[in-house]
Fold:
Amino acid sequence: MEVIIQPSPGDCAATGARIIGQLLKGKTEAVLGLATGSTPLPLYRELITMNQRGELDFSTVTSFNLDEYIGLQGDHPCSYRYFMEQELFKDINIEAERTHVPDGLAVDVSDHCRAYEQAIRDCGGIDLQILGLGTDGHIGFNEPGSSLGSRTRIKTLTGKTCEDNARFFESIEEVPRHCITMGVATIMECRQILLFAFGEAKAEIIAKAIEGPVSAMVPASVLQMHPEVKILIDDAAASCLEHADYYKEVFAGKPSWQCF
Ligand code: F6R
Structure:
């Protein structure tokens, strides 16, 4: 686990975009795992700029999103399909048919989840997964108590997640209680993971995820078991870490061949 602490979300986004750039330049048919929410927005803006400057090509990239609310159609302004169209897809040269977001209106949810897993396998697996972090420790929508061996499936959101996400809706009552999410094991199979977290509100849970015990009660803590994880956080999100100075020293002293 490589913890990269930078002064601002913009700095983290620039670093993340460079890592994604390296992947895309080295692999034409790269498969990206994408997230929604506030956290990846600076990264998506960076990727859009690089794409529009001709520095990044998404024409042969395939993407899989982590999750979607059950009951929301793809053109609903609060659906994650809509979010992705607005915040990234419409501004880059990705092929629409290569983008995948779970279908919130799937009639047979179990069948849809199995097919989603199969589609990921058929593309050769996810090369790089982008993650945000819930204030309750969730990754994707794997809420506390999620099996560390879980696959794509239906989950019930916690009251805390509904509260956190109510800002995107007219009222908290409108936040769907159910979602489809990639499982913890699905995420752990991605070859590389970038988790981003910004601001003081994420500081306590970041410390638990990075320096606490691995536990299903803090699903993000399982990332400690993944060999290729980078945690990109700003100073505010790093403020409860016991070993923040050490992580900064490690990053500052990286040999040039390890830099990105
Ligand atoms: C979104 C997702 C969630 C969010 C998390 C943080 O696709 O999977 O895990 O990353 O809820 O949300 P923000 O970034 O809005 O704080």
Notes: The two ends are 16 Å apart (CA to CA). The chain is about 30% helix and 15% strand. The CA atoms of residues 66 and 182 lie 5 Å apart.
